[in-house]
Amino acid sequence: GIQVEQSPPDLILQEGANSTLRCNFSDSVNNLQWFHQNPWGQLINLFYIPSGTKQNGRLSATTVATERYSLLYISSSQTTDSGVYFCAAPSTSGTYKYIFGTGTRLKVLA
Amino acid sequence: NAGVTQTPKFQVLKTGQSMTLQCAQDMNHNSMYWYRQDPGMGLRLIYYSASEGTTDKGEVPNGYNVSRLNKREFSLRLESAAPSQTSVYFCASSVRLGSQETQYFGPGTRLLVL
Asked: Whose C-alpha in A43, B62, B91, B110 is 20 to 30 A from the C-alpha of B5?
């Protein structure tokens, strides 16, 4: 099955800074999702992005499927962006067995 | 519209005890999932149900059973709890349109097995 790796594992930013989080996957995917887990543990889906680029406010994501990676961009970071960011993909294309990366823990300082 | 709800929020068990974690969704989603999250790790899939009446094993199914009671409800049962099952358990639901799928998560159940 697929392997999903994220980098960096930890990131500390000053409020207002920009950041890029990376997700590498070992096999081709037709489904790639990004999630944010806030400091209270709640998981929120950010993007469904198997290829191309999407934007939602200060967040955007790009997946280059041919090179097997996805990037999550956070611009003008705010303290509310703190938490853990996960990417996930199906272990085998078309299945429901999602494999999550181990996450990037982001702390934004005021 | 409550989304995905889970009960209980927190539970302490002794080794060998059994319990059932409940999950319900009101979004009319076909697919439901149970994950566990251990400290410093991502989520690992325990079981999933692609549609009402079907269930299948995920990455870490040993020691668990599930029931897809109806379209709304998907329960996870620990028959004989072990300390290794201490974790935070998340239920999720999704609707799939072609290959596009968005998962919605419940608030989690924190389980401690002594």
From this structure: B62
pLDDT value for B99: 67
Q: Which of B36, B45, B47 to mutate to test the interface with A (most CBs of A within 10 A)?
A: B45
Judged by CB atoms closer than 8 Å, whether chains meet at A33 and B41 is answered as no
Q: How far apart are CA B32 and CA B73, in angstroms?
A: 8
* pLDDT tens per residue across all 114 residues of chain B: 789 999 999 999 999 999 999 999 999 999 999 999 998 778 999 999 988 989 999 999 999 999 998 999 999 999 999 999 999 999 999 987 776 788 999 999 999 999
Question: Considering chain A, what is the average pLDDT of its residues?
Answer: 93
- How far is the CA of A105 from the CAs of A36, A39, B34, B102, in angstroms? 10, 10, 23, 22
**Residue contact B42–A91, C-beta within 8 A:** no
- Using a 10 angstrom Cβ sphere, with 0-12 exposed, 13-18 middle and 19 or more buried, the burial of residue A110 is exposed
| Among A33, A97, A103, beta carbon nearest to B48 | A97
Q: How many CA atoms lie within 13 A of A35 on its CB side?
A: 25
CB atoms < 10 A from the CB of B16, how many? 10
- Looking at residue A94, what is its pLDDT? 67
CB distance B33–A88 less than 8 Å?
A: no
